[in-house]
Amino acid sequence: MVISIDSPLDMHLHLRDGRMLDIVAPLSAETFAGGMVMPNLVPPVTSREDVRSYRKRILKAQGDERFVPYMTLFFRSDYTPEFLHSVKDEILAIKLYPAGITTNSEGGVKGFDIEELSPVLGVMSDLKIPLCVHGETGGFVMDREAEFIPIYEMLAKNFPDLTIVMEHITTKEAVAALDRYDNLYATITLHHLYITLDEVAGGLLQPHLFCKPIAKRPEDRDALSNVALNAHPKVMFGSDSAPHPREKKEAPGCAAGVFTAPIALPALAQLFERNGALDNLQAFVSDNARRIYGIEPIEKEVVLENSPYLVPEIYEGTVVPMFAGQTISWRVLSVG
Ligand code: NCD
Ligand code: ZN
């Protein structure tokens, strides 16, 4: 069997910088038409110059592949209205991280004081700049996302015209919140559709499946699968592909992040086929994002075939993908 996906989009992607950027950018650009690039570099992307120069480095790294990096800024509550006006045409969204909650988020928001956040959120709402949020509190690791839901609700209520994207949701509580507010949307990763905490830590510890937010319970994964496989109109694919060098993963103090970009489309096809939902894959990996973000991606037709694909053990001797050394039942046949 063969299926064709029209301009697949990855709406949450870490491309890093330097050598890692050179390794991973071509891998995303090979099969995706575009991706929303996260700003958590060191230091983070916080100025127009940062956005422009990072975009240039991405375009250089992706080489001849046709791929649109949709740029983001790292949220700061001291951005001025003038700055936001000046940068709005060069970014697709602004990403808010609670301080210290994940990789390179030390400069994020401390506490969620609406007085402090309101000036920037108000201007974003007026300028139609979406807000993407890493929604976790500093609580017990399994409860962090569910505990954050009241903050999402507070933001959604106070800024009804602001598009708010709950990034990489992992819980049934986040899925339930989606339908309570018109302006709440979500991205869902590949790995959170496949795994629970059992795959991460139920047997021998699997560092390459360790990420933030941590994978949760079977009922959470079921809730995510339900909306993704049915192509709920408010959910989009965002891989949260987050490469770290192998020595940072296979180490005490393992870095958080699962590297999935190069295998994402075959693995999604496998999952959607197993669940009799292949007809909904186009909406999940492209159409919903186009509508939610109001973007028209470049044309790129990716043809997938259900034949065995052996996932590489490692890319460039540096970064280990999800399903390393395993066989997936779909592969990319052609990209046109
Ligand atoms: C991401 C990273 O490594 O940049 N890590 C992760 O576990 N997902 C950051 C993030 O999206 O939380
Ligand atoms: Zn991320």
Write down the domain tally. Answer: 1
CATH topology: TIM Barrel
Helix run count: 12
Tell me the structural class: alpha/beta
Q: What's the level 1 CATH class?
A: Alpha Beta
- Mean pLDDT reading: 98
Structure description:
The longest helix is centred in the N-terminal third of the chain and has 15 residues, at 48-62. Strand 2, helix 1 and strand 3 (34-37) form a beta-alpha-beta unit. The chain contains twelve helices and 14 strands. Strands 5-6-7-8-9-10 form a six-stranded parallel β-sheet. Strands 1-11-14 form a three-stranded antiparallel β-sheet, covered by helices on one side. A three-stranded parallel β-sheet has the order 2-3-4. 36% of the residues lie in helices and 15% in strands. The chain starts with a strand and ends with a strand. It has 336 residues and is an alpha/beta fold. The chain has one domain: Metal-dependent hydrolases (TIM Barrel, Alpha-Beta Barrel). The protein has helices at 18-31, 48-62, 81-87, 114-127, 144-158, 172-178, 191-194, 197-201, 218-229, 246-249, 264-274, 281-293; strands at 2-6, 9-13, 34-37, 68-70, 72-74, 93-96, 131-133, 164-166, 184-188, 235-237, 301-305, 309-310, 327-328, 331-335. Bound molecules: N-carbamoyl-L-aspartate (NCD) and zinc ion. Zinc ion is lined by residues 12, 14, 38, 240, 242.
Give a quick set of tags describing it.
336 residues; alpha/beta; binds N-carbamoyl-L-aspartate; TIM Barrel; binds zinc ion
